[in-house]
Write a structure and sequence with these properties.
This protein has about 400 residues and is of the alpha/beta class. The protein has 18 helices and eight strands. Strand 5, helix 10 and strand 6 form a beta-alpha-beta unit. About 40% of the residues are buried.
């Protein structure tokens, strides 16, 4: 995530941090390089212009130039401005005081609306909510079947109709059903459409007018960069959106969409998709993302991921086994599974401060499969201790 942009900004800021004294000329050179790095990352040019101007204005102040650590001061300013660009604080989806809260997913074909609808339903179910999904995509073949399959995977009901061809009617019937079943979250998976297709946009507006969702969430593919930003702006002007969910963030090395979309649309990013698995949807925290971009890591997200995978009692039991020399190969296998359940290893390592500066380190996740196969091939015997697991690791 943001690897390309992060490396370029790190190179620019490292030059500033290496200087004992900063002059206004040094700032000018750095701002030119930062401007180029952001433009290469596919950030909107108006956003880049405003960002660079604000950073330069603050960086040429006497407090910075005469500081004992002027380079660090500039890094601090860049970090603060990145946070402002991304949205300052995490903005949660607003829940209705009178359930069900209706959330309408909108966006282009292939942006990941259906999968994101299921990820969002799983997110709320984990919080103790009672979500229901609605198959309102009546345009794409097999869209209903895809949502039903995802619903079974996360044990969330899906309302659908194979006979009805009007999405407004389907959504109205789903809302009535949700009230009967005391569902407190209703997620509408609408059909993907181009912003230039007036007929489909009118259909989407009819659904919104009839159901009055609490929030309309625009689902955008982060890897499309400026296209995602421009399309989000068009949807906001024609339909009105309340928040944005960026998918495929784990594959976005540039970061143009994330850094531009809030400034251009005026709407906050609420969630990001960080992987294909159904549990890989994270609330969007601007400060954490800014830290990742500047190579400072994201320890809080790392801790939250670990807490989801590791139970406190299990951790205490594991500690006692290690201290008591009772750590077995089966324990090793179980811990490796838990680590892998936290997501791609490279993504986890990128959350560690300074890891992006370590060159030439690659992670082959197939090695985990090999280790597990070796452990499974061993004949079970009592008394296999930590020494045995160490031998396997070697």
């Amino acid at each position: 995530m943001f690897n390309s942009l992060s490396e370029k900004l790190d190179s620019v800021l490292k030059k500033l941090k290496g200087k004992g004294v900063l002059k206004s000329q040094d700032i000018d050179v750095a701002m030119k390089e930062i401007r180029l790095a952001l433009l290469e990352a596919d950030v909107n040019f108006k956003v880049v212009k405003g960002f660079v101007e604000r950073v330069r204005e603050k960086a040429v102040g006497n407090d910075v130039l005469e500081s004992l650590t002027p380079g660090q001061q500039v890094v601090k300013i860049v970090n603060e401005e990145l946070c402002l660009l991304l949205g300052t604080d995490n903005e949660k989806i607003q829940l209705s005081p009178n359930p069900p809260t209706v959330l309408m997913m909108i966006g282009l074909h292939g942006s990941g609306k259906t999968t994101t609808a299921a990820k969002l339903a799983r997110h709320y179910k984990a919080q103790g909510r009672r979500p229901m999904m609605v198959a309102a995509d009546l345009q794409r073949p097999a869209a209903i079947d895809q949502l039903i399959m995802l619903g079974k995977q996360i044990d969330v009901p899906v309302f659908f109709s194979r006979e009805e061809k009007n999405p407004v009617v389907v959504c109205k019937n789903a809302l009535s059903e949700a009230k009967k079943e005391a569902r407190d979250i209703l997620i509408l998976d609408t059909a993907g459409r181009l912003h230039i297709d007036e007929g489909l946009m009118t259909e989407l507006k009819n659904v919104k007018d009839a159901i009055a969702p609490k929030e309309s969430l625009f689902v955008a593919d982060a890897m499309t960069g400026q296209d995602a930003v421009n399309i989000a702006k068009a949807f906001n002007e024609k339909i009105g959106i309340d928040g944005i969910i960026l998918t495929k963030m784990d594959g976005d090395a540039r970061g143009g969409a994330a850094l531009s979309i809030r400034q251009v649309t005026g709407r906050p990013i609420k969630f990001i998709g960080v992987g294909e698995k159904i549990d890989m949807l994270e609330p969007f925290y601007p400060q954490r993302v800014a830290s990742r971009i500047l190579g400072m890591g994201d320890v809080l997200s790392f801790i939250e991921r670990a807490q989801q995978s590791f139970d406190d009692r299990e951790a205490e039991s594991l500690k006692n086994k290690i201290l008591g020399d009772g750590f077995t190969l089966d324990d090793l296998k179980e811990q490796l599974k838990k680590i892998r359940s936290m997501g791609p290893i490279e993504n986890l390592l990128s959350m560690i401060p300074g890891f992006n500066k370590m060159k030439g380190i690659t992670v082959d996740e197939k090695q985990f499969v090999k280790i597990e196969a070796i452990i499974n091939s061993k004949q079970k015997k009592s008394g296999i201790t930590r020494k045995s697991s160490t031998a396997v690791e070697r």
